[in-house]
C-alpha cells in the first residue's frame, strides 16, 4: 500500500486538451465539474482509498524569517508566479498503476462543452515508513 | 465485592484481542455468516473498550459472546423490519455447541484469501484475527477511519462466497503477517508486536517449519529494535548498532525456533532470511560477522525466490566477504532501477576505496529514497564523504 498526492495546478501544468478557462464555462458546466470531483471523492471513500482532499485559494503570500525578535517578512502575492497549486487529493492505493488510473479518472472531469478537460495532474508518492527487515 | 478479574481503570486489551477469533468462531458455529459475525464482534469489542475499564467481567469470553450475539440479533431485527414486515424471521439462537474446536486457522485462511489484495488482507486479518478496532487499524496505517471501514467491508464482500472451512493457503497467511511486521511501529498499536503475537498463534496451530521460520525472523529483528533508532528517531545501520542493547532473550528464542525448523530440512525463504538474521545476531561486534556463511544463505535465498532484491542484498554481502571489487562485480548484472541500487553501489564503492564515486552515489541514493529515515541516513553518508574529500 502506498500513498500518493494528486496535485491540481491553477498554473504551471502543461496545457490541457480541452483548454478553455473556467470563467468561460456556463454555470451548468462549472456545476457539473464540481459535482464530478465530489462524486470522485465519494467513490474513493467507498473503495477505501481516500485519505484527504483540499482546495486552495489562489491568493497567497511568501513568508520568511527576518531574524529572532523581528516580525516575519511577507511578500507577494505574485501574479506572475509560474506554478500555482489549486488543490490536492491524497489517496492510499495498492500500486503505482492504480494511482495512475485514479489520476487519469480525475483528469477527465468535464469542462467547457461538458467535454472532459484531460488536464495534467501531478502525481507524487508520499515517503513511506522505513521497513523493519532490509537485509 | 469484586471478582479477582475485576479491576477499575485499565483495559486488558491483550485479552480482548486474544478472545476475538474465538468469539467470531462461536457465532459462526451458531450459523452466522462470517461477515455478519465479524461485524457483531467488532461492535462488542468497541463496547468492551468502554465498559471493561469500569469493570472487567469475570467471564470475559462469555461477556463478549453475549454482547456480540445481542448485536447480531439487533442487526437482524432492524434488517428484518426493513424487509417485508409480514415475513417472520427466526432470531432465536440455533441449536449448536458454544464450545468447539479452534477454528482460528480457518479465520487466518479466510482473511488472507488469495482473492484479496494484500492491503485488504492485512486490514481484515488485523480486525478479525488480531481483534483490533477499525479506528486502531486506520490510525496505524494513517488513513481516515471511514476509509478503513470501507476497505474492510469491501474485503468481506470479496470473500462472501468463500466457504468457511475451505482449505487455505499458508503462504498467503505468512505473507500478510510479514507485511504487518515490516510496517513497524507507528501510532498507538505496535504492529511488529502484533505480527509476532499472531505468528506465534499460527505456529501453534500448524507447527510447520516455514511459519516457524517467519516467527524466528521476526523475533531476531525485533530483538534489535532498541538499538535500531536513535532517540531522535533516526536509523542506526546494523554495523553501528550498540549490540549490548539487543534483546538477548528474543535472540535466543528466535535461534532455538530456527534451529528446530532447519533441522526438519524443508528449507523455505523465511527460514533462509532468519538464518541470515541469526548470523548477524551471533556476532558480538560487527567485525566478527561471518559474511562467508551469510553469502551462502543468500545463495539459497536467491535459489528459492529468484528475487532481484535478494540478489542486490547478496552483492552487498559479497562485498563484505570478499571486498568491494567482488561486490561490485556481483552488482554488475543487476538492474540499476532496483530500489536501493544506488545505496548498495555507494557502499561497495566506498569499500573498494573510491570515496568520490561513493559520495556521488550516496547523494543520488538519498534523492531516490522512498522513506525519510533512509534518506536522512544516506544524505549523512554523502556529507561525511564529501567533507572528508574537501578536508
Assembly of the depicted chains: heterodimer
Query: How would you sum up the global shape of chain A?
Result: flat
Largest interface: A-B, 21 and 42 residues
Number of helices of chain A: 2
Give the low-confidence spans of chain A. none
State Rg of chain A.
18 Å
Q: Which H/E pattern describes the elements of chain B? A: HHHHHHHHHHHHHHHHHHH
pLDDT under 50 segments of chain B (min length 5)? 1-7, 88-101
Please report the total strand number of chain A as a whole number: 6
Report the major sheet of chain B.
none
What is Rg of chain B? 25 Å
Summed over residues and divided by their number, the pLDDT of chain B gives a mean of 90
What is the string of helix and strand elements of chain A? EHEEEEHE
Mean pLDDT across residues of chain A? 91
Q: What is this structure's SSE topology?
A:
The complex is a heterodimer of chains A (135) and B (391).
Chain A (H helix, E strand, L loop, with lengths): L1 E10 L15 H20 L3 E6 L6 E3 L8 E3 L8 E10 L2 H12 L14 E4 L10
Antiparallel strand pairs in A: 1-5, 1-6, 2-5, 3-4
Chain B lengths: L12 H17 L4 H18 L8 H23 L21 H8 L6 H11 L5 H7 L4 H14 L11 H13 L8 H16 L2 H14 L2 H4 L19 H15 L6 H14 L8 H15 L2 H15 L1 H8 L9 H11 L3 H14 L3 H19 L1
Helix pairs in contact in B: 1-2, 1-3, 2-3, 5-7, 5-8, 6-7, 8-9, 9-10, 10-12, 10-13, 12-13, 13-14, 14-15, 15-16, 15-17, 16-17, 17-18, 18-19
Explained architecture:
The complex is a heterodimer of chains A (135) and B (391). Chain A is an alpha+beta fold and 135 residues long. Chain A has 2 helices and 6 strands; from the N terminus they run βαββββαβ. In chain A, strands 2-5-1-6 form a 4-stranded antiparallel beta sheet. In chain A, strands 3-4 form a two-stranded antiparallel ribbon. Chain B is mostly helical. Among the domains of chain B are: 4-93; 358-391, no CATH class. Chain B contains 19 helices and no strands. Chain B has helices at 13-29, 34-51, 60-82, 104-111, 118-128, 134-140, 145-158, 170-182, 191-206, 209-222, 225-228, 248-262, 269-282, 291-305, 308-322, 324-331, 341-351, 355-368, 372-390. Chain B is elongated. The model of chain B is unreliable at 1-7 and 88-101 (pLDDT under 50). Classes of the chains: A alpha+beta (135), B mainly alpha (391). The interface between A and B is medium-sized, with 21 and 42 residues.
Amino acid at each position: 500500500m502506498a500513498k500518493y498526492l494528486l496535485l491540481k495546478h491553477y498554473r504551471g501544468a502543461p496545457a490541457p486538451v480541452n483548454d478553455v478557462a473556467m470563467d468561460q464555462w456556463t454555470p451548468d458546466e462549472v456545476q457539473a465539474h464540481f459535482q464530478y470531483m465530489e462524486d470522485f471523492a465519494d467513490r474513493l471513500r467507498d473503495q477505501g482509498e481516500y485519505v484527504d482532499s483540499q482546495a486552495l485559494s489562489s491568493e497567497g503570500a511568501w513568508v520568511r524569517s527576518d531574524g529572532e525578535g523581528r516580525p516575519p517578512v511577507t511578500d507577494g502575492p505574485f501574479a506572475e508566479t509560474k506554478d500555482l497549486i489549486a488543490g490536492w487529493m491524497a489517496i492510499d492505493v495498492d500500486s503505482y498503476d492504480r494511482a495512475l488510473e485514479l489520476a487519469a479518472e480525475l483528469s477527465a472531469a468535464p469542462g467547457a462543452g461538458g467535454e472532459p478537460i484531460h488536464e495534467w495532474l501531478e502525481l507524487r508518492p508520499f515517503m513511506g515508513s522505513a521497513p523493519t527487515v532490509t537485509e | 465485592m469484586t471478582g479477582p478479574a475485576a479491576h477499575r481503570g485499565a483495559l486488558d486489551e491483550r485479552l480482548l484481542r486474544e478472545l476475538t477469533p474465538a468469539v467470531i468462531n462461536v457465532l459462526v458455529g451458531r450459523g452466522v455468516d462470517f461477515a455478519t459475525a465479524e461485524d457483531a464482534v467488532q461492535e462488542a469489542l468497541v463496547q468492551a473498550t468502554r465498559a471493561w475499564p469500569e469493570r472487567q467481567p469475570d467471564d470475559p469470553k462469555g461477556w463478549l459472546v453475549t454482547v456480540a450475539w445481542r448485536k447480531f440479533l439487533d442487526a437482524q431485527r432492524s434488517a428484518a423490519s426493513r424487509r417485508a414486515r409480514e415475513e417472520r424471521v427466526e432470531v432465536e439462537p440455533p441449536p449448536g455447541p458454544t464450545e468447539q474446536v479452534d477454528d482460528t486457522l480457518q479465520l487466518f485462511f479466510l482473511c488472507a484469501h488469495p482473492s484479496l489484495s494484500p492491503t485488504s488482507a492485512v486490514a481484515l486479518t488485523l480486525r478479525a484475527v488480531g481483534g483490533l478496532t477499525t479506528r486502531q487499524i486506520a490510525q496505524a496505517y494513517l488513513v481516515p477511519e471511514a476509509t478503513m471501514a470501507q476497505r474492510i467491508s469491501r474485503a468481506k464482500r470479496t470473500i462472501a462466497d468463500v466457504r468457511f472451512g475451505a482449505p487455505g493457503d499458508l503462504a498467503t497467511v505468512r505473507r500478510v503477517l510479514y507485511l504487518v511486521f515490516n510496517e513497524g511501529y507507528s501510532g498507538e498499536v505496535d504492529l511488529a508486536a502484533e505480527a509476532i503475537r499472531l505468528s506465534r498463534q499460527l505456529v501453534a496451530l500448524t507447527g510447520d517449519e516455514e511459519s516457524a521460520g517467519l516467527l524466528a525472523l521476526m523475533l531476531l529483528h525485533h530483538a534489535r529494535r532498541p538499538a535500531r533508532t536513535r532517540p531522535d528517531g533516526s536509523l542506526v545501520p546494523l554495523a553501528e548498532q550498540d549490540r549490548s542493547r539487543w534483546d538477548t532473550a528474543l535472540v535466543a528464542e528466535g535461534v532455538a525456533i530456527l534451529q528446530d525448523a532447519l533441522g526438519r530440512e524443508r528449507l523455505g525463504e523465511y527460514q533462509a532470511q532468519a538464518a541470515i538474521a541469526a548470523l548477524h545476531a551471533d556476532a558480538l561486534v560487527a567485525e566478527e560477522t561471518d559474511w562467508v556463511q551469510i553469502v551462502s544463505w543468500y545463495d539459497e535465498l536467491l535459489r528459492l525466490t529468484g528475487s532481484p532484491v535478494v540478489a542486490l542484498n547478496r552483492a552487498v554481502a559479497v562485498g563484505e566477504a570478499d571486498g568491494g571489487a567482488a561486490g561490485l562485480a556481483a552488482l554488475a548484472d543487476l538492474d540499476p532501477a532496483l530500489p536501493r541500487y544506488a545505496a548498495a553501489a555507494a557502499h561497495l564503492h566506498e569499500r573498494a576505496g573510491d570515496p568520490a564515486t561513493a559520495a556521488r552515489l550516496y547523494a543520488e541514493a538519498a534523492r531516490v529514497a522512498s522513506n525519510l529515515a533512509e534518506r536522512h541516513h544516506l544524505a549523512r553518508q554523502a556529507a561525511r564523504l564529501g567533507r572528508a574529500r574537501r578536508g
